[in-house]
Amino acid sequence: METVISCFRKRPDAVARLICFPWAGGGSIHYARWGNVFRSSFEVFAVRLPGRESRSREPFFQNMQQIVDEVVSVLLPLLQEKPFALFGHSFGAFTSFAVADALKKVHNVEPVHMFVSGASAPYSETRMKSPKRGDLSDEDFLSWLTSIGGTPPELLANPEVLRLFLPALKADLHVVENYRCNKPDRPVLSCPVTCFDGKDDVPHDLHAWRDVTSGDFTIRMFDGAHFYLKDSGNEKIILDYITKHLETSEMDYL
Question: Per the residue annotation, which of 124, 226, 245, 249 is the catalytic one?
Answer without folding.
Answer: 226
